[in-house]
Amino acid sequence: MYTHYSGSFWAGDVGRIAICSSTAFFIALIASQRVVVELLGRGRLRLVDILRATRLRSQVIANALLILIQHNIVWHCESETGIELFEINWNEILHRLRYGRYLSISRELFGEEVNTNMVLLSEIFFTLSTGL
Fold first, then answer.
1. Which sequence spans correspond to the domains of the chain?
2. Which pLDDT tens digit goes with each residue over 70-115?
């Protein structure tokens, strides 16, 4: 049985929290995608260059870079002159693209039970890493 707030379930605090958290997640996801596209197309970039290229607010870009760095998709480095740069980690992207193949091989070698456990573990790690 659902508790109704002001005549509608979504009008309550729970609904507002769900909408705000999902909106923040998707904004960070879209910003992350735009940052990755720019880094793929242009190579190493300074934060200022990323801000100019994406035309997003600095806080949104900072959050997107934080997520990408936490997932090891983007590297943060400094040049010899002390300039802060961001760079794509190609190996991590290729690893993520091959993940489906890894699951397929595990199913062939170890059976469906091990494959199911790997899928469940990956979902748990995704949930923990994204905070959802």
1. 1-88, 98-132
2. 888 899 988 888 899 999 888 888 777 777 787 788 778 878 877 7
Neighbours of 116 (CB within 10 A): 12
CATH number of 1-88: 1.10.10.10
Indicate the burial class of 36 (C-beta count within 10 angstroms; 0-12, 13-18, 19 or more).
Answer: middle
Q: Which amino acid is at 92?
A: E
Q: What is the pTM of this model?
A: 0.62
